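Cont'd.
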Amino acid sequence: MPAITAEWVVLDIEGTLTATSQVHVVLYDYARPRLGPWIEAHPDDPVTTAAVAETRELGGLASDADTAAVVAVLHGWMAQDRKAAPLKTLQGLIWQRGFASGELTTELFPDVTPALRAWHDAGLRLAVFSSGSVPGQVASFSRTTEGDLTGLFREHFDTVNAGPKREEPSYRTIAERLGAEPDRIVFLSDVPAELDAARSAGWRTVGVARPGEPFGDADFGPHPTVASLAEVSVEPA
Ligand SMILES: CSCCC(=O)C(=O)COP(=O)(O)O
Ligand SMILES: [Mg+2]
């Protein structure tokens, strides 16, 4: 793959840095039984109550629907892998506790940490754009099998502070927040539709097609594609 000159490397998480199973099995199995108890235990937390209200609205529930009805909607979204913002917010709050307590540890693909450290040490600025909430992202990088990696990332974006991952305006918002020209940002993701949106916003893109992952055999169209971050050559502008 030809070397890419960039200021920023923006990274997706699920399927790119971690196996999809790290999210859909480890993290979802941890969050699923804790959603109801969390909601019940935090009746005065504004972040929690706002997420519950938004879940009621998006889920077509009455404004006073009880916790069981709200949790049923949240579990339905998890089963569909619908990454609705209020679900990701509540998951993120629960995962923060899980990582802080040591019950959760993020396992990254073996090629990830060496690449992130090399790019960081070469002067490239690293950021994350994930459907996972920013608090959930930071928590997940605070406790990994490679230690605390939070210091490698300068910025974090999710569907609340940037927008939907498959829509071009989200990438224009991120470029503005980074203060960078679009073509000085390279986005690495396992999802072709996300890469398409980033490319339409003028970003450089690299498809990460890992064998055995959901998009491992996908058609990445015009995007340069790798199976490992070790194949990605990025040089600081
Ligand atoms: C580490 S935060 C949890 C990630 C998450 O909940 C998720 O849905 C990942 O989606 P992505 O956009 O990173 O593929
Ligand atoms: Mg992904």
